[in-house]
Write a structure and sequence with these properties.
heterodimer, A: 233 residues, Rossmann fold, 6-stranded mixed β-sheet, 4-stranded antiparallel β-sheet, 10 strands, B: ABC transporter involved in vitamin B12 uptake, BtuC, 2 strands, binds adenosine-5'-diphosphate, binds magnesium ion
Chain lengths: 233, 316
C-alpha cells in the first residue's frame, strides 16, 4: 500500500528526518511511536506533501507520490488526519464534512455522511453547530469523520488521543479497529505507546529522526529496552 | 421633511449597496490570500466601459430588443471582468506568492496603474456618457423623490448579495472558498484544490466590482478612467469597517458607510450653520477608516486573523 524509503526531510535548513524507511501493507494497522519531537508528525507531513523532502522515495499503491501537492495525494486515497485535529472552526460540523468530501471516488456524499453519523451519533446531533463550539473529543471525532469523507484507502492519524479523557480515548481506538476491519489501512502515530501497540499489527519506533526499532507490535510491546523508555515499566 | 429623509435614505441604501458589492471583492480576496488587492477599484471602473462597448456593439448589430442587448452586455461584463481578475491573479500575483505578502501587493498597485492607463489611452481621459439601462423616472408612490434607477440599483445589488450568500454557504464550491479562507494547509490536506478556490474568488470579486461600476455609472450617467480610485478606497473602508475577511461584514460595512456618508453630508451644513458644506462628503469615509483602525481594527464582524494561518500559508 505505502512504501517509504530513505526519507530525509526538514524545515528550510533544519533537517529533522535522517532516513526513514517504513512500509504499510493493505489492511494493516501500523503504529509509529517515539518521544516528543522525534519526527513522527514530520514523517506524516512529508508523506502528505506538506513538509519539504530532501531525498528519499515514497510510493503509494505502486505509484511515486513524492512531489505531488497535498491535495492530489489526498485525492489518490491517502488521507491525513492531522495533529491537533485542525478543524475548520468557522464552518459547521456538516460543512466540515462537506469540505472533506471528494467526489468521483465511487461513493456519494450522503452515503459516507450516513456512515460517519452512525459511527459518531454526536456529530449528527450537532451537525449544524459551529465546529468551534465542539469539545476536544467531539472535534477529534469530527476530524476522523472528515478524513473518511475522502474515501481513503490509507488513513494516517496523528495523535488521535492527544488531550482526551480515557473514556473517549477508548471510544476512538474502538473506531480505529472498526475502520481497520472495514478494510482501511492505517498509520497511527501515538505518544500513548501502550494503547497503540495493543491494536497495531506492526510498529516503528522513531528516535531523533531515525527509525531505531521496528517489528511486530507484540514484539515491540515486550521489548525490555522499549518498556523502560516508552511504556514507563 | 419626511420626503427629504426618504430620499436621502434611498440614496444612502443605493450608494451603500454599491460600496458593499465592491467591498465583497476586497474582503474575499483578503480572506483567501491575505492580500489587499489595490487593483480592485479598476475592475469597478472597467465594468461600465466594457458594458458600453458591448452594448453599443450589440445595438449596432440590431436584431435584438435593446433590453436584451443590455442584459447580454451586463452578464458578459461580469464574465469578462471576472476572467480578467482570474488572469491577473494567475500571472501578476501568484508567481510572487513565495516572496511574502508585500510583493503581490506592490504588483496589485502596478496593475491598478496599468489598467487605468489602458483605458485612458484607448478611450481617453475625459468623462464620457454612460447609456441609461433604465429610464430614470421619479416614482410617484414614494413622494416623487425616489427614481426607478435608484430602486433598480438597490434591487440588483441585494439580489447579487443574496446570490453570493447562498453560493458561499450552500454549495461545495462556496465551502471550498470558506475553507481556504481559514487555512490553506488544512484545506489542501482535505483534498481541496486551493488554487482553484483562489481563482474562483478572483472571478467573483472583480465580477461583482464590475456590476457595482455599472450601477454607479447608471446613477450619474457618466464614467471616467479615474472613477475607481476614490470609490475603491471608500469600499475598502467599508470592508475594514465590517471586518476584512468577513463576507457579511463587507455587506454591512457598505450599507453603514453609505448611511454615514449620505446622512453626514446631508445634515452637516444644517448642523454647522452652513459653515461646512456638502463638499466635505469624502471626509466621512476616511474619518471612519481612521476611527475603525484606531478603536476596532478587527471591524464589526471580523475575526482576529491568527498568525498561524499566515504562517501555514507561507509554509505551504
Ligand atoms: N514548522 C517547523 N519548523 C521548524 N522545525 C520544526 C517544525 N515543526 C517541527 N519542527 C522540529 O522537527 C522536529 C520533529 O518534530 P515533530 O515531527 O513534530 O515530532 P513529533 O511529532 O515526533 O513530536 C522537532 O525537533 C521540531 O522542533
Ligand atoms: Mg507530533
Amino acid at each position: 500500500m505505502l512504501k517509504v524509503a530513505g526519507l530525509k526531510a526538514g524545515y528550510g535548513r533544519t533537517q529533522v528526518l535522517f532516513g526513514i524507511d517504513l512500509e504499510v501493507r493493505a489492511g494493516e494497522i501500523v503504529t509509529i511511536i517515539g518521544a516528543n519531537g522525534a519526527g513522527k508528525t514530520s514523517t506524516l507531513r512529508s508523506i502528505s506533501g506538506l513538509t519539504q523532502i530532501y531525498s528519499g522515495e515514497i510510493e503509494f499503491k505502486g505509484r511515486p507520490i513524492k512531489g505531488l501537492p497535498p491535495e492530489e495525494i489526498t485525492r489518490l486515497g491517502l488521507a491525513h488526519c492531522p495533529e491537533g485535529r485542525q478543524i475548520l472552526q468557522r464552518l459547521t460540523v456538516e460543512e466540515n464534512l462537506l469540505a472533506g468530501y471528494i467526489p468521483g471516488r465511487g461513493r456519494s456524499f450522503d452515503e459516507i455522511r450516513t456512515q460517519v453519523y452512525d459511527m459518531f451519533p454526536i456529530l449528527k446531533e450537532r451537525r449544524n453547530s459551529l465546529a468551534s463550539r465542539m469539545s476536544g473529543g467531539q472535534q477529534q471525532m469530527l476530524a476522523i469523520g472528515r478524513s473518511l469523507m475522502a474515501t481513503p484507502e490509507l488513513l494516517m492519524l496523528d495523535e488521535p488521543s492527544l488531550g482526551l479523557a480515557p473514556k473517549i480515548i477508548n471510544q476512538i481506538f474502538e473506531i480505529i479497529i472498526t475502520l481497520s476491519k472495514s478494510g482501511i489501512s492505517l498509520i497511527v502515530v501515538e505518544q500513548n505507546a501502550a494503547v497503540a501497540l495493543e491494536i497495531a499489527d506492526y510498529a516503528y519506533v522513531i528516535d531523533a529522526g531515525r527509525c531505531s526499532v521496528e517489528g511486530g507490535a507484540n514484539n515491540v510491546l515486550n521489548d525490555p529496552d522499549l518498556k523502560a523508555a516508552y511504556l514507563g515499566a | 421633511m419626511f420626503d427629504y429623509f426618504l430620499q436621502q435614505l434611498i440614496f444612502a441604501l443605493a450608494i451603500g449597496a454599491i460600496y458593499g458589492l465592491i467591498a465583497l471583492g476586497y474582503t474575499m480576496v483578503y480572506g483567501v490570500m491575505r492580500l489587499i488587492n489595490f487593483a480592485h477599484g479598476e475592475f469597478f471602473m472597467l465594468g461600465p466601459y466594457i458594458y458600453t462597448f458591448l452594448f453599443s456593439g450589440l445595438l449596432g448589430l440590431g436584431g435584438l430588443a435593446p433590453v436584451l442587448d443590455s442584459a447580454i452586455a451586463i452578464v458578459a461584463s461580469f464574465v469578462i471582468v471576472g476572467l480578467l481578475g482570474v488572469a491577473i491573479e494567475r500571472f501578476a500575483y501568484r508567481p510572487l506568492r513565495a516572496y511574502g505578502r508585500l510583493a503581490p501587493m506592490l504588483s496589485a498597485l502596478g496593475m491598478s496603474i496599468v489598467l487605468q492607463s489602458a483605458v485612458r489611452v484607448t478611450v481617453g481621459p475625459q468623462p464620457v456618457h454612460f447609456p441609461a439601462i433604465v429610464e430614470s423616472t421619479p416614482i410617484d408612490a414614494l413622494g416623487g423623490m425616489v427614481t426607478t434607477v435608484q430602486l433598480g440599483i438597490l434591487a440588483a445589488a441585494v439580489l447579487l448579495m443574496v446570490g453570493l450568500a447562498l453560493f458561499v454557504n450552500g454549495t461545495r464550491l462556496g465551502i471550498w472558498i470558506r475553507a481556504a479562507s481559514e487555512s490553506w494547509t488544512t484545506s489542501s490536506l482535505l483534498g481541496i484544490r486551493v488554487n482553484r478556490a483562489v481563482s474562483l474568488v478572483f472571478f467573483i470579486g472583480p465580477g461583482l466590482g464590475a456590476m457595482a461600476g455599472i450601477m454607479y455609472a447608471s446613477y450619474y450617467g457618466i464614467m471616467q478612467p479615474t472613477m475607481g480610485s476614490v470609490i475603491g478606497l471608500k469600499a475598502f473602508t467599508a470592508a475594514i469597517l465590517g471586518g476584512i475577511g468577513s463576507i457579511p461584514g463587507a455587506m454591512l460595512g457598505g450599507f453603514l458607510l453609505g448611511a454615514i456618508e449620505v446622512f453626514g453630508t446631508a445634515f452637516l451644513p444644517i448642523l454647522s450653520f452652513g459653515y461646512i458644506g456638502t463638499e466635505y462628503r469624502d471626509v466621512f469615509a476616511f474619518a471612519v477608516l481612521i476611527l475603525v483602525l484606531l478603536f476596532k481594527p478587527a471591524g464589526l464582524l471580523g475575526e482576529t486573523v491568527s498568525e498561524e494561518t499566515t504562517v501555514a500559508k507561507k509554509d505551504y
